[in-house]
Amino acid sequence: MPEKLTSRNLLNQLQTRHYTNAYAAKMKGQLVGWATSIFPQEFCETMGLTVVYPENHAAAVAAKRGALPLLEQAESEGYSVDLCSYARINLAYMKSQAAEIPIPLPDFILCCNNICNTLIKWYENIAAELNIPMILIDVPYNHGYEPTPAAIDYIKSEFGECIRQLEKITGQQFNQERFQEVMILSNENSRAWKRALDLNQAVPAPLNGFELFNYMSQMVCARGRQETGELLKLLIEELEEKIRLGKSCYEDGEKCRVMWDGIACWPHIKHNFKAFEKNGINIVCSSYPEAWVLLYEPGNLDELAKVYSMIGNNTCMEYQADKREREVKNFKLDGILFHVNRSCKVMDFMQYEQQRLVAARTDVSIMNFDGDQADPRNFAAAQFETRLEALMEIVAHNKSAKKSKEVTNNDPA
Amino acid sequence: MITAGVDIGSTSSKVVVLEEGEKILSKVIIPVGAGSSGPARAFEQSIREVNLSREDIKRVIATGYGRNTFTGADQQITEITCHARGVYELVPGVKTIIDIGGQDAKAIGIGKGGTVSNFIMNDKCAAGTGRFLEVMSRILEINIEDLADLAASAKNEISISNTCTVFAESEVISQLSTGTAREDVAAGIVQSVVGRVAGLVKRIGVQSEVVMTGGVCLNWMIIKVMEKELDVPVIASPMAQLTGALGAALLAFESAS
Amino acid sequence: MTQLKDLLSVLENVANNPAQVINKCLEEKRLMIGCAPEYCPEEIVYAAGMLPVGLWGGSTSIKNANLYFPAFACSLVQTTLELGMRGVYDRLAGIIVPAHCDHLKCFGQDWKVAVPQVRFIPLAHPINRKLEAAVEYLKSEYFRIKSVLEEIGGKPISDQALSEAIEIYNDHRKTLREFTTIARDYCTTITPSLRHNVIKSGYFMDKLEHTQLVNSLIRELKKAPPEEWQGKKVILTGIMAEPNEILDMFEDYGLAVAADDLAQESRQFRTDVPQGKDPLEGLARYWSCMEGCSLLYDPQKNRRFMLKTMAEESRADGVVACIMKFCEMEEFDYPIYKKTLEEAKIPLLYLELDLVTPSLEQVRTRIQSFAEMISRKR
């Protein structure tokens, strides 16, 4: 009997296929695009275009410890070490194509700044260096709780412009019926993704949160596709089974439930994983994979504009604090570990206040550490381990304090 | 005509006294630099050695980190220009100069006639400078001069991934505490500094001949690793840390005549 | 001649002591609104009868702002927040903060919490600025800001007042353009730091008054024949050329400013607000007309060609990239125009600047080396 296909195996197959297909398409002379990770893929998916995601690629390169030569190459071309490491890796790759996992160079690029404005500068450089068209969907920063009607109108008009540009690049017409299908499929996948993430609310959590970072790749690269739905279905079945059996992802159970706030520290992910395991800490959720839950009414472009505009990084202080507060409660968190990510300014520069707000509203314990999403040089293992142990000590202290309080409260006297 | 060049670094003071822009009358190195009595002492010693007085020196040019604090000079010129001039005298075919100083690392492109065509210096952090080597040597409990020999005996060179001095310090300490051999750590330190500086050199473009100046070029291991990183031969300046002072003395001669 | 000196010292005094001007404003009971970098619709503030005050940080150490920012935020947002938290801006009736970059987005949100006594007035420009829909959207942002200012001032802002403000501002822009062109011929009198201060003083004065002073200055300058300049001339590009000491270093080493491409200086006045029936629309459209700034969407990177042309036309001997440490917007542009300038054989200096820990001696060495390099080259 053939071994049962696990979601993990399927994920690996799909990711490998994603990259080999892109290369094959390029070889056949088809157009290939590069896109930012939360670009409204609905448009290019409708056109049936092959698109790869430099952020995903840079993360994969970094996780395979291949970042340093590319980072140094970028620096020798004049890019400051202070710039986003994904950008530096990708801009160097664009010139040398020196990476273990190759991706084809783009014929056009798609940029949406719902994560940060750094992306715009990075993509401008690609467009200028390769002399190729750049499609920008700008979602103005939401200084209010949600986008203004004028902002929605502006974004919708950009959608129209995006379609016009795609038609011009491909020489093909945009098919509205297919668009509707893609939107329906994308929502189904987003719902399934949310379901999978939410299953980790169970105590003990069935999935090690670090796995979320891996499955996330599929949501980044193919959230409008059938096969992603199949993968998520398999994942959900596995998780439900584990919950039914009351199984934790750790043999000896989870001692502590923590949210990872920010992007993974890809070059050191194995180290991080081991450090958590050693301490019995489970990363049950993270702000990062959740960004790919994009739900709207298919066909409603106002909602499409809104959902792409309201990615965590593009929202105001209050919205972000509300979201974190909900997560602390839903996932029954003991702690939050904040990644002070040298690359990601937009996440870091509101983080200190976020920490204070969440601490004030909940009884969660908070710790932060210095790191970087892809530059291995901006992380110190010793610091990380010390911080983790400190977090454990604080959580343990708070738990026992809470317990003794409960005992006091239960005292009939 | 007699001229002098005084190069005041952050950790040492160097003086060259020159006759007719050709003959070196004296050269002095004192291992204390800017802000100390070192520069004045070095200067006095250099002229006393050849029985001269200040009046005999037609022109004095100060260079280096502390050039503006030395009152005995007629003019101040940066170490960039002085190194270029000094190296050009010693190695006329020079196209690229690498100087790792205590505070600054720099790469200098040389154009026609020994002029500077381009230069670049490290950013503010200490990675890739003499200061970084100094801090790391202290952790290894050795003299900075012995770092090369120690590194040369490495069997399994480790890589120091951090460039931030503070982080690198904790990384080195944790390597040592988990039993990594000191020579392997030393080799990692050398590699880290060279990697950073090589990045600077690549930014201006590597062109042979490549010459290294400054005290660090006495560290043969650094030269060797640099050659590997840049993939071209690297020559140590024959006058090592005196190169800047020589350049200053030459420039003093040229501007006085 | 004395009149020229007097004019220069008046402007310099304002640039270096904005508090005096601000106090005068308080005596006159005129409300003030802070305008954070880099592009604020000052005309709306002016039309409300208030004084727009430019806030571009300052050389100071960080004691409070590190409650909000890690060390790698640019010193413009760090020091502005620091000064705000120390109460330096308490007399302002509000602060407009555009969200041009990731640093500024967060700066605005942090300001709201850290400096609650100075009302936060947010602004998010459209980046896809060549689209007609962008003009509409920006108009709505400006309309909201106008309403906030009407509420603060307690009276409506008329279209006529807006149109007049635009005219005053365009006139100011024209005057500053003329000044920067003429300053090129008087490099001995108009030193790099005086040139900077003449422009900077405009951030703390009524633009009408500033225009008059600068016009008088131009007239006085023209009375003497153009000055012979023995030294070299450079172009400054970047966000700003501060801390102040660095411009004195240019002077020390015989470098004059041929032209600038700084956000704090020429980028503010090289384009005029288009005139039209609807003043708010004109202001919104202005954003679509500007070019050549790291904060303006530019997928062709035309800035590189603008810089090259600027260097050639102003006969500059080199370009100095004044890179605010941690400013990604500028840091991303640098490798692109570096290549263009290198191909054109125009010398380029990368000068990393920081208002918090300036390490001035290192900056001095770079400037002096660059001066030596371009002097010996030709």
TrEMBL record, chain A:
Keywords: Iron, Iron-sulfur, Metal-binding. Transmembrane segments: none annotated. GO terms for molecular function: G protein-coupled receptor activity; hydro-lyase activity; iron-sulfur cluster binding; metal ion binding. Its cofactor is [4Fe-4S] cluster. This is (R)-2-hydroxyisocaproyl-CoA dehydratase alpha subunit. Belongs to the FldB/FldC dehydratase alpha/beta subunit family. PANTHER family: 2-HYDROXYGLUTARYL-COA DEHYDRATASE, D-COMPONENT-RELATED (PTHR30548), SUBUNIT OF OXYGEN-SENSITIVE 2-HYDROXYISOCAPROYL-COA DEHYDRATASE (PTHR30548:SF4). Pfam families: HGD-D (PF06050). GO terms for cellular component: membrane. It comes from the Bacteria.
Automatic annotation (TrEMBL), chain B:
GO terms for molecular function: iron-sulfur cluster binding; metal ion binding. Gene3D superfamilies: 3.30.420.40. Keywords: Iron, Iron-sulfur, Metal-binding. Pfam families: BcrAD_BadFG (PF01869). It comes from the Bacteria. This is CoA-substrate-specific enzyme activase, putative. Homodimer. PANTHER family: BIFUNCTIONAL PROTEIN [INCLUDES 2-HYDROXYACYL-COA DEHYDRATASE (N-TER) AND ITS ACTIVATOR DOMAIN (C_TERM), BIFUNCTIONAL PROTEIN [INCLUDES 2-HYDROXYACYL-COA DEHYDRATASE (N-TER) AND ITS ACTIVATOR DOMAIN (C_TERM)-RELATED. Residues 5-252 form the ATPase BadF/BadG/BcrA/BcrD type domain. Its cofactor is [4Fe-4S] cluster.
UniProtKB/TrEMBL annotation, chain C:
InterPro entries: FldB/FldC_alpha/beta (IPR010327). Gene3D superfamilies: 1.20.1270.370, 3.40.50.11890, 3.40.50.11900. It comes from the Bacteria. One of its GO terms (molecular function) is metal ion binding. Its cofactor is [4Fe-4S] cluster. PANTHER family: 2-HYDROXYGLUTARYL-COA DEHYDRATASE, D-COMPONENT-RELATED, SUBUNIT OF OXYGEN-SENSITIVE 2-HYDROXYISOCAPROYL-COA DEHYDRATASE. This is Benzoyl-CoA reductase/2-hydroxyglutaryl-CoA dehydratase subunit, BcrC/BadD/HgdB. It comes from Desulfosporosinus lacus DSM 15449.
